[in-house]
Amino acid sequence: MEPPPGAAENSKLRHVEKDVLIPQIMRERAKELCSDKVQAFTKCCQETGLLMVVKCRQENTALKDCLVGYYSDPLFYEECKTEYLKQREEYRATGIKKKRQKLSSNV
Length: 107
Hints:
6 helices, elongated
């Protein structure tokens, strides 16, 4: 059985998609999954003001470890790539761009 016409074209990614758009989805999803650490770091920064560089090291380290864990996970990349390909396919079919919900950093 032959793949539908244009199927090979649909799975190819341009440079900007690989290096910009998919990592953007990864960052947004990782922030959602690490939201407890994001909130702890934000709270610490708000409470300490200018001394945050010194006093929030523990929270910053925990946040970085959480985010880097997701960024370096190949399965997480594939999930985000699949999500992007679905969005792209939907856009190509309908011409309507899906709006992404932005999280505010001080939730």
